[in-house]
Amino acid sequence: MGHGHDHGAAAHAGGRHAWRLRAALALIGVFFVVELVFGLLSGSLSLLSDAGHMAADVTTLTAALVATRLAVRPDTTGRRSYGSYRAEMFASAFAVLVMLGVAVYIVAEAIGRIGASPEIQVGPMLVVGALGLAVNIAAMALLRAGAGESLNVKGAYLEVMADTAGSVGVIVAGVLVATTGQAVWDTGVALAIGVFVVARALPLGRQVLAILAQHAPPGIEPARVAGSLAGIDGVREVHDVHVWTLTSGMHVGTAHLVTEPGADGHAVLDRAQDLLRADWGIDHPTVQVEPAAHAGCDEPGRCPVPKEVTVPKEL
């Protein structure tokens, strides 16, 4: 049996961008207090909903930072053979739940205001909305570079993106209320913000669930991986191919290869590991090489990919 030991192939994706999370948290944490105070003073539901987004941002960014620290912490127990990288996935799932919770609250409050005519102070609403927009844009710029590499950072980025939309909504609602004198615009914008948050949260939730359920990563089909392994010289059969994602940017795979009589098992092992890393982006491949006499391929379903079957690697 052979395998690669580089668990840090992501190096680690979330850890590399921890400073971005810290800077974004500092910016948003300070402004959350400002927006909450002025939201209560102005009576604006859209401003209060945006403050709720800010609170969700603070919670999400804090959870992301904690998860990042856990993910890179050395295991002193000897029981976490893959480390604590999955902590990032739980933080991402938490971000999704927070976003959905905020959206439900906004929609419930907006529905409760239908038919009412609350007093809204437009001046503070516009000023704080504009300041919130500037803070959110700065936080998005900080997080954007890491969102493509880490689902943990992506969860924080999407949360801030939703809050940016909320700040735009606050400004639009303020202008409409000032122009028409109708508070219903404030309620309508708050509802639109809630829908936008849900639209951003659900795709991230699907990604997180796919990783926690150990689905094959997007673009990597186990059948094609097995086919490419079957094409290695000296390989007779391939079975027990499994591919999954441990954390953002870190794919793991296992495979059992049955060799032809007289084949060089060490050479087969080296070629298989190189193929999995180079062609399929599997950072931590574990390959077991079995001589034909030991494989037990007479068992039903034991060796589903024969040597003569060629499955193209191109997607």
UniProtKB/TrEMBL annotation:
<dbReference type="InterPro" id="IPR036837">
    <property type="entry name" value="Cation_efflux_CTD_sf"/>
</dbReference>
<dbReference type="InterPro" id="IPR002524">
    <property type="entry name" value="Cation_efflux"/>
</dbReference>
<keyword id="KW-0813">Transport</keyword>
<feature type="transmembrane region" description="Helical">
    <location>
        <begin position="122"/>
        <end position="143"/>
    </location>
</feature>
<dbReference type="GO" id="GO:0005385">
    <property type="term" value="F:zinc ion transmembrane transporter activity"/>
</dbReference>
<feature type="transmembrane region" description="Helical">
    <location>
        <begin position="155"/>
        <end position="177"/>
    </location>
</feature>
<feature type="transmembrane region" description="Helical">
    <location>
        <begin position="54"/>
        <end position="72"/>
    </location>
</feature>
<dbReference type="InterPro" id="IPR027470">
    <property type="entry name" value="Cation_efflux_CTD"/>
</dbReference>
<keyword id="KW-0472">Membrane</keyword>
<dbReference type="GO" id="GO:0005886">
    <property type="term" value="C:plasma membrane"/>
</dbReference>
<feature type="domain" description="Cation efflux protein transmembrane">
    <location>
        <begin position="22"/>
        <end position="212"/>
    </location>
</feature>
<dbReference type="InterPro" id="IPR027469">
    <property type="entry name" value="Cation_efflux_TMD_sf"/>
</dbReference>
<dbReference type="InterPro" id="IPR050681">
    <property type="entry name" value="CDF/SLC30A"/>
</dbReference>
<feature type="domain" description="Cation efflux protein cytoplasmic">
    <location>
        <begin position="217"/>
        <end position="291"/>
    </location>
</feature>
<protein>
    <submittedName>
        <fullName>Cobalt-zinc-cadmium efflux system protein</fullName>
    </submittedName>
</protein>
<keyword id="KW-0406">Ion transport</keyword>
<comment type="similarity">
    <text>Belongs to the cation diffusion facilitator (CDF) transporter (TC 2.A.4) family. SLC30A subfamily.</text>
</comment>
<feature type="transmembrane region" description="Helical">
    <location>
        <begin position="93"/>
        <end position="116"/>
    </location>
</feature>
<feature type="transmembrane region" description="Helical">
    <location>
        <begin position="24"/>
        <end position="48"/>
    </location>
</feature>
<keyword id="KW-1133">Transmembrane helix</keyword>
<dbReference type="InterPro" id="IPR058533">
    <property type="entry name" value="Cation_efflux_TM"/>
</dbReference>
<feature type="transmembrane region" description="Helical">
    <location>
        <begin position="183"/>
        <end position="202"/>
    </location>
</feature>
<keyword id="KW-0812">Transmembrane</keyword>
<dbReference type="Pfam" id="PF16916">
    <property type="entry name" value="ZT_dimer"/>
</dbReference>
<dbReference type="Pfam" id="PF01545">
    <property type="entry name" value="Cation_efflux"/>
</dbReference>
